[in-house]
Amino acid sequence: MTAGGAGAARGRLVIENAVKAYDTPAGPALAVDNCSLSVEPGEICMIVGPSGCGKTTLLNAVAGFHDLSSGRIALDGVEIAGEGVQAEPGPDRVVVFQNGALFPWMTALDNVMFGPLAQGALGPAQARDKARAMMADAGLADAQDMYPAQMSSGIRRRVEIVRAMMNDPAILLLDEPYRAMDSLTRAMMHEALLEMHARRPVTILFITHDLEEAVFLGHRIVVMSARPCRPTLELDIDMPFPRKYAMTAGDAYRGYVQAALEAVHVEAVKSFAAGEKEAA
Amino acid sequence: MSGALSAMGPRRARPARRAGPSQAGRRAATSIAVFLLLGELIARAPALFGVEVPVLGVLPAPSGVVAEALRELSDPAYWQSWYLSFLRVAGGFLAALALGVPLGLLLATRRSFRNVVFPVFEVLRPIPPIAWVPAAIIFWPTQELSIVFVIFLGAFYTITFSTYHGARQVDPALVQSARSMGSGQWRVLWRVVLPAAMPGIVTGAAIGMGITWEVVVAAELISGGSGGSGGGLGHFMWDAYLANNHERIVVAMISIGLAGYLSSTLLRRAGRLLAPWQPLK
């Protein structure tokens, strides 16, 4: 990883002994249990685990959407969750959601301009110039004046990532952003994301349950246990960047997918059994 | 009117499709013509056939209504009635919009506010606006204010409720994403929840507008009937009734229908301007 400029030093995420329990009529239910994880600046860290394992809960705690029951999370040394810290979302860690959250009443350009205007970081003219430039860099100049309903799902998601990057975040939080897409579109999304990351190496925390996606995109894969969520396996993906889709035919890639699959499968079986119990 | 005509133009130009729309248009014209002709025959039955049609016989002849309408069109007093009713509807409706939309948004987004205010709202809501007339007359210093107040109530509950409902159904991801990008509470309310709720608000406003016309006529009938200065289309109709002018009663009824239709059309236009984007999916 070569990462130049001030951006490289930012984006160190440290999660220590994070616990999140929800109150339910049947008593407290653990969603995240004693989870520790650190992510280096500029790293693409893929979180995989069975559906409903609490990955999103962990990501939402990083995003500042809710508190932890105990433990702490720090971003670049600043505590963002923990004892005595009020959970508060911020533009240093922007989330891109599973089903997309572009504002349907705004054009792509207005969507992309939203963050800096909301923060008062830029004036309207500056924000517009920056948004135009960033959309052009991402190859989205033609989509500027479209409303989300007029875009394909792929364009929508790419605009949304540009919108997130407009805030100069220290970390980008992606919650299964390509879940509902067909594999062709998804392949294009992956390459576009990696291109963006090459231009601006932001730290990425990426939740998915698609192992091939995880291996293709990540510097590292963290396999989470069945609920409550806790890392059970960390897998460094030692494949060179820029990654191209041709690599997915190689032995190294297949080997990583196989290793991750085995780890996840064990947890998926547990999760399935637990799900049966919970449903009863 | 011109909108309707221009919308028909290209459709007519399309040759195929079994001449559908123009056939429907011909049918509509025929049905209305037959309806008017029947009305005319019933009204003229005593002169034509020497028989009076029971019950329906008292209705005025369509030709008489048209003649009366033509007379009224050149009478400034008639237009003054339109003006007064529109003014009252606009006043009450705009007040309902100005109070109902913020109230609906707050009810939807502030839990403690909702817990305190919603019960009162729900207790008052089932009371029909017309039932407020006597209380309003006592409470407000002028009759004009009491009429506007009752109109306000007619639109207020509907607008508040549909705003509340629209705002409750906003995708939480939109709100979280706005907060994630550094929006404060008020910015989220104004820039995210309000536009997301806009389709619901426009629907509620259209329904509320319909209610205001029901209410304004009733309120004017009551205030005009009790010897007040009144004015407005409701009062105009009451006058026609007192004068036993059946033709003018029908002119008044049609005018009120038209007035309601025109305000709904205006509102739909405004709604399209306020929400030009197409909904996702």
Describe the model.
- The complex is a heterodimer of chains A (280) and B (281).
- Chain A is α/β, with parallel strands linked by helices and 280 residues long.
- Chain A folds into two domains: 13-92 and 171-279, P-loop containing nucleotide triphosphate hydrolases (Rossmann fold), CATH 3.40.50; 103-168, no CATH class.
- Chain A is built from seven helices and ten strands.
- Chain A has helices spanning 55-63, 108-119, 124-137, 153-165, 183-199, 211-217, 251-279; strands spanning 13-24, 27-39, 44-48, 70-75, 78-81, 93-96, 171-175, 203-208, 220-224, 231-236.
- In chain A, the strands form two sheets. A six-stranded mixed β-sheet of chain A has the order 6-7-8-3-9-10, with helices on both faces. Chain A has a four-stranded antiparallel β-sheet with strand order 2-1-4-5.
- Chain B is mostly helical.
- Chain B folds into two domains: 27-56; 60-274, Orthogonal Bundle (MetI-like fold).
- Helices cover 80% and strands 0% of the residues of chain B.
- Chain B contains eleven helices and no strands.
- Chain B has helices at residues 2-13, 20-49, 62-73, 76-109, 111-124, 133-139, 143-168, 172-180, 185-225, 232-242, 246-274.
- The longest helix of chain B is centred in the C-terminal third of the chain and has 41 residues, at 185-225.
- Classes of the chains: A alpha/beta (280), B mainly alpha (281).
- The interface between A and B is medium-sized, with 30 and 24 residues.
